[in-house]
Amino acid sequence: MIMRPSNKVVTLVILAAIILIAPIFFPSSYYFRVGSLIFVNGLAVTGLVILLGYAGQISLGHAGFVGIGAYACALAPVHLGLHPALAAILGAFLSAVIAFLVGRPILRLKGYYLAVASLGFGILVSMVLSNEAQLTGGPDGMPVPELGLRAGLKTIGIDLSNTEFWYALSGLVLVVGAWLALNLYDSSTGRALRALHGSEVAARTVGIDVAHYKLQAFIISAVYASVSGSLLALQNKFVTPDIAGFLHSIEMVTMAVLGGAGSVFGAILGGAILTTLPQVLTVFQEYEQLMLGLIMMLVMIFMREGLLPAIARRLRGRGE
Amino acid sequence: MPEFLQFLLSGITVGAVYALVALGFTIIYNASGVVNFAQGEFVMLGGMITVFTYAAGLPLPLAALIAILATAAIGVALNTLAIAPARGAPVVSLIIITIGASILIRGATQLVFDKQLHRFPAFSGDTPIAIGGATILPQSLWVISGAFAIFLLLWLFFTRTLIGRAVLATANNRVAAQLVGINTNFVMTLSFAMSAAIGALAGVLVTPITLTSYNIGLAFALKGFAAAMIGGMGNPKGALVGGLLLGILEAMTAGYISSQYKDATAFIVILVVLFAMPQGLFGSKSTDRV
């Protein structure tokens, strides 16, 4: 489809180059902050690419997993005495387990039913986070402990400011995440996912365990979402149930389809656009829902594959 | 026992609203095969537009009528501008389009009106009526009779009128319907208008009890969908029964288990129904074409 093997290396090199070179042009630390937000969102959207772009399964509740990752970093250090980094890993593990338990039944569903079931799951998670106030601080949110890695780096002579550190760490995690996702695309699992995306019946006839692979894609994308939630919570040092909310799920899907859910780079591009827009246009905040809705509709009506494939086709057409 | 009766009455009231939303889902689903996730926004629009036209000084019945007509127009616009151009698109695309429409309507409402909770006076006062130790608001009677009246009207429309039968024919086989001279585009427009108007009516009826605000639509969409599914997607009788059942279940959950988690009922019901009886109570067995 969109990503050919040769494109894999190209994508990774371009991504790493952008992350490394961009800081040269940053006039203030604020840009590092926006950059790291782009990477964190890009990571979550990369996970959605595996589910939506590779396997063709929709989830309108993935922010639920973002919330689990985020609250794991807030709660586990306090209640279990875990290091925040271990808490993030625990969150990812927990997300995988929950994705397994929830995914097994709901992935038997198709289309509309899957959309509603995943939507319901997301709402359930944010409901629990808001309602269990004695544990989570309720709608007001709760503080997240310091990761402590930056102080460690200082002792070995690498002295980064807070925003620089988070820029570097999120950038690194994004590149690793993109690398894994691109590898997955070419693996036998990736082929199976693309096959069942094309036709579940055809995939089944050639011996692909459709339910198994769908579940795998769901779990992997849940882990991506969870890690992105952990990163976000740790760098904000604060978390509210909004992170798991319906609107965040929708934002993630919009980012994925805007850039092109079929390719990792496209999805990261979509994430970058939707993360930057509110920073550039301050009025965007007020119009956020309006814009999200409009983008979702326009992209799906006029360029179903998303921005990147549409641009790529235009360029290729001109070259010939 | 009066406690149980009280929960039952409030469950039937909310259930009647879910039934109306589910009927709206059913009409569009039957005509086009699309599940319209913006269905809940019609309920919100019905309430919100009435609130603001009433506040502008219009008499309540007129305000409600304007709200219903305006919402129907928005429903038609949704079909013309977004659903019709995407004909033949994969289901995932249609889901994203209608979810997008829902967010768009939400965002626009928040800008045009505001983010506050609103209500307008009940149609026949707020004095509760006592029934066997429990009480019911006069407005609840309006909601319940409204749902049954709409159900009856729809039933008459689909079985006794030519246009109603044209809608059924289109639902059954679009090409065949076109061949016998049915204007299927008109049928689609009509379905969206009717569905939006019914949603708006539900919003008008229930706002004096539950209040309204720009963001209530999603919950109604989720619950209306659950109700439609309990009854079997696409079946009007199922939508009515499913809505009432879901409302009662939710009221019992709120009363006996936890009011904080009553909204989880719909989700759990969706899961249970999907696994225990995927075709719903009244659905017929279907097979997928490969």
Give a quick summary of the entry:
The complex is a heterodimer of chains A (320) and B (290). With 320 residues, chain A is mainly alpha-helical. Chain A has helices at 5-21, 29-54, 63-79, 84-106, 111-131, 133-136, 149-155, 162-186, 188-198, 200-205, 210-236, 246-259, 264-280, 284-302, 307-319; strands at 142-143, 238-239.
Write structural notes for this entry.
The complex is a heterodimer of chains A (320) and B (290). With 320 residues, chain A is mainly alpha-helical. Chain A has one domain (5-22, 34-252). Chain A is 77% helix and 1% strand. Chain A has 15 helices and 2 strands. In chain A, strands 1-2 form a two-stranded antiparallel sheet. The model of chain A has no long low-confidence stretch (mean pLDDT 86). Chain B is mainly alpha-helical. Chain B has one domain (2-276): ABC transporter involved in vitamin B12 uptake, BtuC (Orthogonal Bundle). Helices cover 73% and strands 2% of the residues of chain B. A two-stranded antiparallel sheet of chain B has the order 1-2. In chain B, helix 1 (2-32) runs parallel beside helix 5 (138-160), helix 2 packs parallel to helix 4 and helix 2 packs across helix 8. Chain B is globular. Chain B starts with a helix and ends in a 14-residue tail after the last helix. The mean pLDDT of chain B is 88. Chain A binds chain B through residues 52, 56, 58, 60, 105-106, 108-113, 115-117, 119-121, 123-124, 127, 131, 199, 201, 246-247, 250, 253-254, 257, 286-297, 300-301, 304, and chain B through 35, 37, 82, 85-86, 89-97, 99-108, 110-111, 218, 222, 225-226, 229, 260-261, 263-264, 266-267, 270-271, 274-275, 290.
